[in-house]
Amino acid sequence: MDLQNSWKWSSNYDLTNYTLVVPSVAVGNVAQLACDLLIATLRMEKLASIYTTAQVPLVGCDPYNLASNTLATACELYVSAIHNLLVLQVRSPLIQKRARSFLENLVDQFQQKQIKDIIILSSSFAHEKKHIMTSPFRFIASNNTPYSERIQMANLIPHEQPESDIKIFGGGYAAILFNICKEKSLPCLCVYKYCSEGDNVPDAYDMVEQLQNIFPLLDRDQNPTTQFMQPASWKLLFGRPPPQEIY
User: Fold this and answer.
1) What does the pLDDT look like over 165-217, one tens digit per residue?
2) Is the pTM of this model over 0.85?
3) How far is residue 81's CA from residue 17's CA, in Å, rounded to a whole number?
4) Gap between the Cα atoms of 193 and 168, Å rounded
5) String of b and e for 74-92 (b: at least 16 CB within 10 Å)?
6) Which CATH architecture has domain 14-246?
7) 205: enclosing H helix or E strand
8) Closest by alpha carbon to 9, among 150, 137, 110?
9) 123 and 173 in contact (C-beta within 8 Å)?
10) Stretch (H or E) spanning 88
11) Does the keyword Coiled coil apply (predicted)?
Protein backbone atom coordinates (compact mmCIF):
# COMPACT_ATOMS: atom_id res chain seq x y z
CA MET A 1 0.00 0.00 0.00
CA ASP A 2 1.32 3.45 -0.92
CA LEU A 3 1.96 6.02 1.76
CA GLN A 4 -1.12 8.14 2.34
CA ASN A 5 -1.31 11.29 4.44
CA SER A 6 -4.58 13.07 5.11
CA TRP A 7 -4.57 16.47 6.83
CA LYS A 8 -7.83 17.60 8.41
CA TRP A 9 -7.65 21.29 9.38
CA SER A 10 -10.22 22.70 11.80
CA SER A 11 -9.27 26.37 11.28
CA ASN A 12 -7.55 28.45 8.64
CA TYR A 13 -4.63 30.06 10.48
CA ASP A 14 -1.89 32.05 8.82
CA LEU A 15 1.16 30.16 10.11
CA THR A 16 3.79 32.46 8.62
CA ASN A 17 6.80 32.79 10.97
CA TYR A 18 5.45 30.24 13.45
CA THR A 19 7.77 27.81 15.22
CA LEU A 20 6.87 24.11 15.13
CA VAL A 21 7.79 21.78 18.01
CA VAL A 22 7.91 18.09 17.06
CA PRO A 23 8.51 15.28 19.58
CA SER A 24 10.36 12.13 18.61
CA VAL A 25 8.96 8.89 20.02
CA ALA A 26 12.03 7.94 22.04
CA VAL A 27 13.33 6.67 25.40
CA GLY A 28 10.82 7.26 28.19
CA ASN A 29 8.49 9.22 25.87
CA VAL A 30 10.09 12.35 27.35
CA ALA A 31 9.47 14.52 24.30
CA GLN A 32 5.80 13.52 24.08
CA LEU A 33 5.29 14.22 27.78
CA ALA A 34 6.98 17.61 27.34
CA CYS A 35 4.61 18.41 24.47
CA ASP A 36 1.64 17.38 26.62
CA LEU A 37 2.89 19.81 29.27
CA LEU A 38 3.24 22.61 26.71
CA ILE A 39 -0.22 22.05 25.25
CA ALA A 40 -1.90 21.99 28.67
CA THR A 41 0.07 24.91 30.17
CA LEU A 42 -0.43 27.21 27.18
CA ARG A 43 -4.04 26.04 26.70
CA MET A 44 -3.31 25.38 23.06
CA GLU A 45 -6.11 24.90 20.52
CA LYS A 46 -6.30 21.81 18.32
CA LEU A 47 -5.71 22.94 14.74
CA ALA A 48 -5.43 19.75 12.70
CA SER A 49 -5.45 15.95 12.75
CA ILE A 50 -3.10 13.98 10.54
CA TYR A 51 -4.03 10.49 9.40
CA THR A 52 -1.19 8.49 7.85
CA THR A 53 -0.42 4.90 6.89
CA ALA A 54 3.08 5.51 8.28
CA GLN A 55 1.86 5.50 11.88
CA VAL A 56 0.40 2.94 14.24
CA PRO A 57 -3.29 3.99 14.52
CA LEU A 58 -4.64 5.16 17.86
CA VAL A 59 -7.83 6.73 19.17
CA GLY A 60 -8.84 7.73 22.68
CA CYS A 61 -10.36 10.38 24.93
CA ASP A 62 -9.28 14.00 24.89
CA PRO A 63 -6.08 13.91 27.01
CA TYR A 64 -6.44 17.54 28.14
CA ASN A 65 -10.12 17.50 29.13
CA LEU A 66 -11.49 14.22 30.44
CA ALA A 67 -15.05 15.63 30.36
CA SER A 68 -14.83 16.39 26.64
CA ASN A 69 -16.66 14.38 23.98
CA THR A 70 -13.83 15.01 21.50
CA LEU A 71 -11.64 12.08 20.51
CA ALA A 72 -7.86 12.24 20.19
CA THR A 73 -5.94 10.45 17.46
CA ALA A 74 -2.35 9.38 16.89
CA CYS A 75 -1.09 12.64 15.37
CA GLU A 76 -2.56 16.07 16.10
CA LEU A 77 -1.44 19.65 15.66
CA TYR A 78 -2.01 22.33 18.32
CA VAL A 79 -1.57 26.09 18.05
CA SER A 80 -0.94 29.05 20.35
CA ALA A 81 -1.47 32.24 18.35
CA ILE A 82 -0.16 34.37 21.24
CA HIS A 83 3.23 32.65 21.13
CA ASN A 84 3.38 31.95 17.36
CA LEU A 85 3.84 28.33 18.36
CA LEU A 86 2.72 25.01 16.89
CA VAL A 87 3.08 21.67 18.66
CA LEU A 88 2.66 18.42 16.74
CA GLN A 89 1.76 15.74 19.28
CA VAL A 90 2.72 12.25 18.11
CA ARG A 91 1.08 9.59 20.27
CA SER A 92 2.22 6.35 18.60
CA PRO A 93 5.36 5.14 16.79
CA LEU A 94 6.06 5.53 13.09
CA ILE A 95 6.44 2.42 10.94
CA GLN A 96 10.15 2.32 10.11
CA LYS A 97 9.98 1.74 6.34
CA ARG A 98 7.50 4.61 5.91
CA ALA A 99 8.89 7.06 8.45
CA ARG A 100 11.12 9.07 6.12
CA SER A 101 8.40 9.60 3.49
CA PHE A 102 5.97 10.77 6.17
CA LEU A 103 8.52 13.15 7.71
CA GLU A 104 9.37 14.60 4.28
CA ASN A 105 5.65 15.22 3.68
CA LEU A 106 5.46 16.83 7.12
CA VAL A 107 8.28 19.27 6.36
CA ASP A 108 6.83 20.04 2.91
CA GLN A 109 3.42 20.83 4.40
CA PHE A 110 4.84 23.28 6.91
CA GLN A 111 7.22 24.90 4.44
CA GLN A 112 4.17 25.62 2.29
CA LYS A 113 2.67 27.29 5.38
CA GLN A 114 5.88 29.36 5.62
CA ILE A 115 6.74 28.48 9.21
CA LYS A 116 9.95 29.99 10.59
CA ASP A 117 11.68 26.90 11.98
CA ILE A 118 11.33 23.49 13.65
CA ILE A 119 12.43 22.45 17.15
CA ILE A 120 12.76 18.69 17.63
CA LEU A 121 12.57 17.29 21.17
CA SER A 122 13.95 13.84 21.89
CA SER A 123 15.78 11.64 24.41
CA SER A 124 18.64 9.15 24.44
CA PHE A 125 19.69 6.17 26.54
CA ALA A 126 21.27 7.31 29.80
CA HIS A 127 24.11 4.79 29.41
CA GLU A 128 25.20 6.55 26.18
CA LYS A 129 26.23 9.64 28.15
CA LYS A 130 30.03 9.67 28.13
CA HIS A 131 30.76 12.65 30.39
CA ILE A 132 28.97 11.82 33.62
CA MET A 133 29.35 15.18 35.41
CA THR A 134 27.96 17.29 32.56
CA SER A 135 24.39 18.40 31.83
CA PRO A 136 22.10 15.61 30.56
CA PHE A 137 21.00 17.84 27.65
CA ARG A 138 22.57 17.98 24.19
CA PHE A 139 21.68 19.91 21.05
CA ILE A 140 22.16 19.76 17.28
CA ALA A 141 21.50 22.94 15.30
CA SER A 142 21.47 23.75 11.60
CA ASN A 143 23.64 26.63 10.44
CA ASN A 144 20.59 28.83 9.84
CA THR A 145 19.00 28.32 13.26
CA PRO A 146 17.67 31.57 14.80
CA TYR A 147 18.64 30.43 18.31
CA SER A 148 22.48 30.53 18.16
CA GLU A 149 22.79 33.34 20.72
CA ARG A 150 20.27 31.82 23.14
CA ILE A 151 21.96 28.41 22.89
CA GLN A 152 25.25 30.02 23.98
CA MET A 153 23.55 31.85 26.85
CA ALA A 154 21.93 28.59 28.01
CA ASN A 155 25.35 26.85 27.95
CA LEU A 156 23.93 23.89 26.05
CA ILE A 157 26.42 21.17 25.12
CA PRO A 158 26.61 20.22 21.43
CA HIS A 159 26.01 16.69 20.18
CA GLU A 160 29.27 14.78 20.40
CA GLN A 161 29.22 13.10 16.98
CA PRO A 162 29.99 14.66 13.59
CA GLU A 163 26.99 16.32 11.94
CA SER A 164 27.60 14.26 8.80
CA ASP A 165 26.67 11.08 10.71
CA ILE A 166 24.10 12.02 13.36
CA LYS A 167 23.05 9.17 15.63
CA ILE A 168 20.94 9.59 18.77
CA PHE A 169 20.73 6.15 20.32
CA GLY A 170 17.19 5.57 21.55
CA GLY A 171 16.19 8.90 19.98
CA GLY A 172 13.62 7.59 17.51
CA TYR A 173 13.33 9.50 14.23
CA ALA A 174 14.88 12.76 15.54
CA ALA A 175 18.07 12.43 13.44
CA ILE A 176 16.09 11.59 10.28
CA LEU A 177 13.83 14.62 10.70
CA PHE A 178 16.81 16.89 11.42
CA ASN A 179 18.55 15.74 8.22
CA ILE A 180 15.37 16.29 6.17
CA CYS A 181 15.09 19.85 7.50
CA LYS A 182 18.73 20.48 6.55
CA GLU A 183 18.18 19.07 3.06
CA LYS A 184 15.19 21.35 2.58
CA SER A 185 16.96 24.39 4.14
CA LEU A 186 14.40 24.73 6.94
CA PRO A 187 16.05 26.06 10.14
CA CYS A 188 16.08 23.28 12.71
CA LEU A 189 17.20 22.71 16.29
CA CYS A 190 17.16 19.33 18.05
CA VAL A 191 17.35 19.17 21.85
CA TYR A 192 17.51 15.82 23.62
CA LYS A 193 18.07 14.52 27.13
CA TYR A 194 19.86 11.42 28.37
CA CYS A 195 17.42 9.46 30.53
CA SER A 196 16.15 6.00 31.48
CA GLU A 197 12.75 4.36 31.26
CA GLY A 198 10.49 4.76 34.30
CA ASP A 199 8.65 7.76 35.72
CA ASN A 200 9.74 10.33 33.14
CA VAL A 201 7.49 13.17 34.28
CA PRO A 202 10.45 14.99 35.93
CA ASP A 203 12.34 14.68 32.64
CA ALA A 204 9.42 16.31 30.82
CA TYR A 205 9.45 19.26 33.22
CA ASP A 206 13.22 19.59 32.74
CA MET A 207 12.77 19.50 28.96
CA VAL A 208 10.22 22.33 28.95
CA GLU A 209 12.40 24.39 31.30
CA GLN A 210 15.30 23.89 28.89
CA LEU A 211 13.07 24.90 25.99
CA GLN A 212 12.11 28.04 27.94
CA ASN A 213 15.77 29.12 27.86
CA ILE A 214 15.78 28.91 24.07
CA PHE A 215 12.22 29.85 23.14
CA PRO A 216 10.66 31.86 26.01
CA LEU A 217 7.00 30.97 26.51
CA LEU A 218 6.34 31.62 30.20
CA ASP A 219 6.66 34.65 32.47
CA ARG A 220 10.39 35.17 33.06
CA ASP A 221 9.73 36.86 36.42
CA GLN A 222 8.22 33.69 37.89
CA ASN A 223 9.58 30.21 38.48
CA PRO A 224 8.57 28.13 35.41
CA THR A 225 7.51 25.17 37.56
CA THR A 226 4.84 27.30 39.29
CA GLN A 227 3.31 28.12 35.90
CA PHE A 228 3.01 24.58 34.57
CA MET A 229 -0.41 22.99 34.28
CA GLN A 230 -0.36 19.20 34.50
CA PRO A 231 -2.38 17.52 31.71
CA ALA A 232 -5.52 15.73 32.87
CA SER A 233 -4.37 12.49 31.24
CA TRP A 234 -1.33 12.30 33.54
CA LYS A 235 -3.63 11.20 36.35
CA LEU A 236 -3.84 7.88 34.50
CA LEU A 237 -0.20 7.75 33.43
CA PHE A 238 0.51 4.47 35.22
CA GLY A 239 -2.98 3.01 35.05
CA ARG A 240 -5.40 2.52 37.91
CA PRO A 241 -4.21 1.47 41.38
CA PRO A 242 -4.50 -2.28 42.15
CA PRO A 243 -7.96 -3.33 43.42
CA GLN A 244 -8.15 -3.56 47.20
CA GLU A 245 -9.86 -6.95 46.88
CA ILE A 246 -6.56 -8.64 46.05
CA TYR A 247 -5.10 -7.88 49.49
Assistant:
1) 789 999 999 999 999 999 999 999 999 999 999 999 999 999 999 999 999 99
2) yes
3) 11
4) 10
5) bbbbbbbeebebbbbbbbe
6) 3-Layer(aba) Sandwich (3.40)
7) helix 201-214
8) 110
9) no
10) strand 85-90
11) no
